[in-house]
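explain this:

___
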Amino acid sequence: MCIRDSLNAQTVEQLLTSINPEKRLGKRDLALLELFYASGLRLSELCGARLEYLDQDDHFLRITGKGNKTRLVPVGGKALTALDQYLTLERPALVTRKTSSHIFLSIRGGPISPDRVRQIVKERAKQAGIDQNIYPHLLRHSFATHLLENGADLRVIQELLGHADIATTQIYTHVDQKRLKAVHKNFHPRG
C-alpha cells in the first residue's frame, strides 16, 4: 500500500450517498462510514468506540488509540446525523441481553469486528460503482489529505490522527507540495 493513497472528495461523496439508510443495516453502515471519514479513526478505534464516550451535544467522541492513549475527535454534522439515526432507529433492534455499550454492533448484537468493517467498506464501494480498491485505512488517509488540501495545519492533523510524532503525519505533505507546484505553475509568470 502506498501511504499516500487517498480518495478524492467526489469518490468519498459517491460512497456515502450510495448507501440507502432505509435498507437493512443501511443506517449502521452509513453511520460507520460517515464517522470513519469525518473523524479519521483507525479501524480498531472505530470498532472500540463506545456510547458513553460519544458526546452528541458537543460533537466529540473520546477514543482510545495506539499506546492506550485517549484523545477527543470531532464528529462532523453529517456523521452526527447518521449516528443519531442509527442509534435511535436501528441499533436497538440489534441489542441482545449480552450487548455491551459499543456503538457499532453486528447482527448478533456483539461489537462489530474489524474483519466485518473491512467487508462493509468493500461491499459498499462495490455497490457505489467504485472500481478502486477501497479499504478502511484509505478513509483515514482521505480524511487527513482533505484537511491538508483545504488548509488545515499539519500539527492539528497530527493531533486529530493521534500521531505521537509529527514525522508520521508528514506523509500527507505530498498533497500540499503538489498543490503548491500547481498554484505556482498556474499563477507565477515564470511558472
About this structure: Residues 77-94 form the longest helix (18 residues). The beta strands are 54-55, 60-64, 70-74. Residues 9-187 form a domain with the hpI Integrase; Chain A fold (CATH 1.10.443.10).
